[in-house]
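seq:
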Amino acid sequence: MAELITVDDPDDPRLSDYIGLTDVELRRRREPAEGLFIAEGEKVIRRARQTGYEMRSMLLSAKWVDVMRDVIDEVPAPVYAVAPELAERVTGYHVHRGALASMQRKPLPASDELLATARRVVVMESVNDHTNIGAIFRSAAALGMDAVLLSPDCADPLYRRSVKVSMGAVFSVPYARLEAWPKALEGVREAGFRLLALTPDAKATSIDEAAPHRLERVALMLGAEGDGLSTQALMAADAWVRIPMAHGVDSLNVGAAAAVAFYAVATGRPES
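struct:
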């Protein structure tokens, strides 16, 4: 059973995991280095625990203590009860959902470990917007993608905003970072995957014609918002595919495009 501790000093060192949550650069450096991430909101905290993440501590406003009572009773980590005003001073913003948890990260698997059992993979290049990362992971989970591979410069899927937007789906889809880019794509191909680059380029084949759901193993490549996939990534692909557009629209937000493409990749997927 967790120890419920009332804290009334914003400088209390026990709250250090929650300091400056709106300072993106600070949190980007600090969280991976210290092996932690922040789960925000009751549903996300519960999903993190259900998928095996260990809790370091929890920060609750008073009215959320009863809501999270079962979690408090189950975990050994300390639970800090604070006034909303103090939570805002520590974190840097108004904690609307009233519940935060500092969770311990797990070691990331190697990419070849994921590729050994996957059949439908997402490969992201330079997607550094946390909202887009979260949206893509949520769609990947909902539409049956097996794993996600990230180029070295992609944003952290466990950053608070990514986790929140994904509604905890980042905990459900395994992911790994590719160390060498785009050279690491050779390993994806060698594992039996056909590399499909999603691009609005007119030279690309319609994703309907490409029929990725009929392929045994598919790696769908997505680029950053605006810039799209780099020339090097496009050249490394086996084929370019596009989503047909109407009414003069040239492209979709990468999160929306990912959802459409994932559906095309997974539709008619044979049973494992």
